[in-house]
Design a protein that fits this description.
With 269 residues, this protein is of the alpha/beta class. It contains 10 helices and 5 strands.
Amino acid sequence: SSSSKSRTIKDSNSGKDDDSNNNDFKKREEEEKIMFLDPSVISFMMHQCDDEDLHDLASSWTITGTKRFFIPINDNFGASKRKFGIPGGGNHWSLLLVVLMIQGEQNNATSSCEEEGEGAKGGNEIDEAISARTRPHMCFLHFDSCRGHNTQSAKVVAKRFHRAVKLAFDDDNNDIDNDIMTIIECNNPQQYNSYDCGVHTLMAAEALSDPSLLCATNASEIEAIQKVHVDTLNTWFGRNGGHGGAALSMRQKMVDEIQKLSKIYLDKE
């Protein structure tokens, strides 16, 4: 009958809506596991935060399971507070990628990698784990298009980031400064001029922000995490034109994005 046909169509559309909602939820969940930190936040963290500020900053990041932080590194971030305050400082940019895993959760973290209902922890269990002060484990991967130039700056930023996260998780922070940190200098594409460092930093961020890489970060071996990120970046770089071509493509994309946003802004007026 027409009424039963109508119900069938309605039920079918309802199923599509459910699928759409589930996809939107998974997309938001994946996006929440990636955080891009603005350079101004890093400068604030480096030169204006005491331990209480660092605790509050890291606590605002809502860290559960596995999360990846993309941190722009400038060679001036490692400067003294006095030198940092001099306008015009800094000559080189690179990318520090932090893979942060909560120990005891990284193999069971809720993510798009797992089948629904298999090994995924519920919200209450995660809350209980956080309240019990589960310990964070951090893997620092440094992608520098002029390898070695920003190593020292990456180290001091990583140490400050590490302290902020530890303060957010540990009631007793006496051992924070004694924790061993390892920063891996990755074998990523290198620039062939003196001005493409910023573009290379943006290319690395775009290539490595692929949510599918979250599956790889559930591995406990740092070498495995490093390899999949380096391979992904090098593959992306080659696919987008390699040396010369990839940088030009990224510059054009920046122009296109600015024009697109400008049009949206002007249309609202």
